[in-house]
Structures are given as structure tokens and as C-alpha cells.
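Q: Protein A?
A:
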Amino acid sequence: MSYFDFDALNIEDRKMNEAKQLGLQLAATQASLLVLGEAGVGKTSLARYIYSKSRSGKLQVLECKNAGGFNFDKVDGGTLLIEDLDCASSHVQAELMKLAERTDGTKPRFISTSRRDLRAMVKQEQFRQDLFYKIAVIHLEVPRLEDRTNDFNTIASFILEVTQIMHGRSGLHFSTDAYARLTSWNWPGNIRELENVIERAVVLAKTQTIEVGSIQFESVQDDTAADFAPGMSLSAVEKRLILQTLELTAQNRTRAAQMLGISIRTLRNKLNEYREEGVA
């Protein structure tokens, strides 16, 4: 699903409102926007909302994780929504640079999404600096669902309403215990995970009341778990854990340090060590 009517939803979270209002302010301009945030927070929903408020023509979507079939030559003005810009290969980055340098009136307006901090990737020579300056002029950050406590009920209610329509149900509501279970979870998968949990609950509900037993959380095995194996040195495990936590938090060092239980200074020193080793 992953679509939200930002006009209809009463958003109370300050950071989310700031991102929405800045997006609206810039919607009618040609400014290149970069929407940042963890996986599943709703970056693409915000990007599409901003496009819907613009005067731009055709919308084309480039999925950087699967860009093989995209024809850059067919981009002719309008808006180019670039999903997962941080995953763009060197070839895709080169093609995007060509688009950004067009002077024949066919240059598109860029709205991009990214989980990782492109500035850090530029410093690590993982992303072109010239391209960064071209298509990441204004940054909008979408907060994690866990941090949007004031908006949780609004978001959950909206998802419940839409999911009922999808599955031909109506009149469903959460029991007190079921809702308490939802609010007690930290939602590492953010809104995308909440959608998954509520859809499962709607399908499993036997009555109009969604009971706590229908609220089920998936235990997802992270692919990175395979990176850890018996026989590894503690320093190697520590290095991988730190780098993967930074990946998880979109290179947010403050958040990563909190999750790791270390100070920002310690994290900075560790990253300096890895940089000297040619790792970070």
C-alpha cells in the first residue's frame, strides 16, 4: 500500500510537519529534492505527494536497485522520481549526471529518496560529488515511526481503514489489548512493517474486534547475520556491527551510537581507525 493522503491526515509530529511544509513550499519550483529516512518510513509517499502538488508534467520513476531496464534517453522533462539513490551504480550515476547537465529543455526535475547520508558517501568516494550537488539541493528528512508517537494512532487508523477496503471488510477496530500491543512495539521496519502487521490482523480477524492474538510480529532474519561466524576476532565482530548499525540508521551517527551503547566520541574514533584501514 504505502500511500498516505497527507492532506487528510492530521500530522502532529514536528519533524514530519516540517518536511511536509517544506515540500509544499518547494513543490511548484524546479528545486531538486532529496528525501532521507530509514527503510519503510514513507519517503516515496512524501516524494509522490510533493510531485502531486507541483506543476510538473509527466512523472517517471527510476528504481536504482533495479535500473537495468530504464531508458535514460526517453526522459523528456517532467519529474524524475529516483528511488534509493544511495544504491545507484556508477553507470546510473553517470547517466543521471548527463540528465542533470542537459540544456535543451529536456532536463527533468529531480526528486530522490535515500536511506543513507549521501554526504558521507561522497566523502567515502561511493557517490559522485558533482552529481550530489546537482540533484540533492534541498534535503527533507522523514522521522522513524518509533519517534512519531503523536501520529501513531492517526497512521494506524488510516492503514486499518484502507486495508479493510482492500479486503472487503468494514467496521473493524482494535481491542484495548491489541492496540496496546501495537504501541509497545518499536517498529524497526517503520510504517511498512505496521502495514504488514495490520493487514495480517484484518485478514485473521474473526469478528469486528481485532484481538491481541491477531497482532503478530515477524521475526525477520537479517541477511547481515551471515557476516558473523564462530572464529571471528572480537575486533572484526565489533567493526562489522558498527558499520551495519550505521547502515541501518542511514549513517546517523547519533542514533547509531545510542543503539550501540557508546558515546559519539568513541564511535568517531572507531570510524577514524576504520578509515585508516581503508574500510570506512
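Q: Protein B?
A:
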Amino acid sequence: MLNRRHLRVKVLQSLYAYHQSEKKDLKAYEKSLIQSVDKVQEMYIWMLSLINEVAQYADTDATAMSNKYLPTEADLKPNLKILGNTFIQSLNKNKEYLAHTKKYKVIWDFDPELTKSLFATLKASDDYKAYLEKTDDSIHSDKDIIKFIFKKVILKSSIAEQVFEDKFIYWPVDKDVLQALIAKTFKNFAFEEPEKNKLAEVVVNWDDDREFIISLFQQTIRYDETFQEMIANKTQNWEPERIAMMDTLLMKMALAEFMYFPSIPVKVTINEYLEISKEFSTPKSNSFINGILDKILAELKADNKIKKTGRGLME
């Protein structure tokens, strides 16, 4: 699921796009920010659908093999065990999954060669051959082959990688979240009765998370000039153009949390943005951001401008 760090990254991406754009349409970027979270849900459904498509392709492949000019006995009597896989059957009966595939118009017709290629890889694997020969099947063993399709077939495919990268602009960033969602789905699908098996939740408390990301986005922009002046006062020995834009945005977001998010502890804010900087900024950004924020924080505390309540009081 998307945790607060992932959500902060979504805000960072939106702020970067906002500042790079000539048209400062705040509402449009807020809408885009909300959509970026929904895109994670959409990506998750597309991936579940692709797993399903690969499994279902066994039937298409069997028809093609039986229609060969000189089919073998094996071609005429294919093992279609995977079509009865409990995970696949449960997924195809899951009302939430079916509703989302309809909502996002999930159809793989635009790239028929992808599923064919992925199934060919699966069919040639020792794991699939062992699965077909296995007789003491269980929910666990049925999920194992689906995990193999996801981890060793789809995620290892450069073609699948390109398809998702083309379809989802933040695929490189959201890929880790997707893997966690799929892993959670495997864990959730533990029952024989399909109605008991639930999809993973992309966000647990969307009302709170939605308010958090919109408020963080708004406050960072609303006090942009104030935050810029605070940062400039502590970086007088630095030429402005030498300070990475990502570093500046991360510090402004942190300042917004210091001053306008009373329930978030200062230490949590600092740790979150230092971790984000490791992935999205320069190798030296971590220590640079930490040093500047420490100096500003000391002044804010001295001026009694840090007002924390409840959980925010934790040190």
C-alpha cells in the first residue's frame, strides 16, 4: 500500500511539475496529484490482469498446437491444469477486481504478442513443468506458480517492462509499491471461497491521506516565497543555481510540515525527507538538506514558531 513516504513523493512530483510549468493552475495540479494515487490502483489492476492473461493463454496455446500440420499426441492432449488454478479462478470471481477492470478498461488486445511471449517463457520453464506434473495441489502450491509468473516471467520481461513504463509515467517509482500490493494479494487470497479473498488496499485511510497530500501541496506553494527566503538566509555561501531544485522542494515541504502540520513530529519529517533525498536528489543532498533544516529549525524553535500537538509532540 501507499504509505506516507510514498505520498510525500507524489506531492514532490506534483510540485516539481508545477514549478516547471508556465501555467500555474493550482486546481489542475491538485487534480493531477489525486490522479497519480489512482494511477497506482490502475497499475495494480493491469498487473493482476496480465497475470490472468498469461494463465488463460494456455487455452489459446493449446488450440494453436492442436491445429498444427502434424500435431503430436501431447499437442492433442494438452495439460490445461493452470486454467483451474484456484488463485486464477478466485480472481476472476472477485467483484472488486471485475469492477476495476471495467473502470480502467483493461484489455490487452493492443499488444497480443506480449501475452504470447510471456506464456512461451512460462511454458519452457522447469517450474511450470513441475507444476503440471504435481498431483497433490493446494491453495499454497497454486499460488506458488502464480508468484512465479509474476516474479520470474513478467518482472523479468523487458517487453512487459516497456509496456508498463509507456503506460504509467511513474512506473520506475511505483514499481516497488506494485510488488508490495501483489505480495499482499497473494497473502489475502488464502481461502477456498472466492468471496473471502480480498484485493490489497492501495490506501488504508483515503480521507486522511487525501487531506494530507492536498494540504502539503497547497501549504508548500502558499508559503513558497517565505520558505525560499528562510532557505536563502542559510545558504548565503551557495550560488542559487548550484542548489538542486529537488533539494529546495524537499526543504520547503519539510518546512511546511514543521510549521503547519501539528500532529507530525519534527523528527519524523526530517527522517522522511532525508530518505526521499537519497532516491530523488544528488549524493550530497542528504547532508546538505539535514544541515540547512537543522539551522532553520533551531531558529523556528527559538522564535516559538513550531506548534506541535498530540503525536506531534513526540521527539
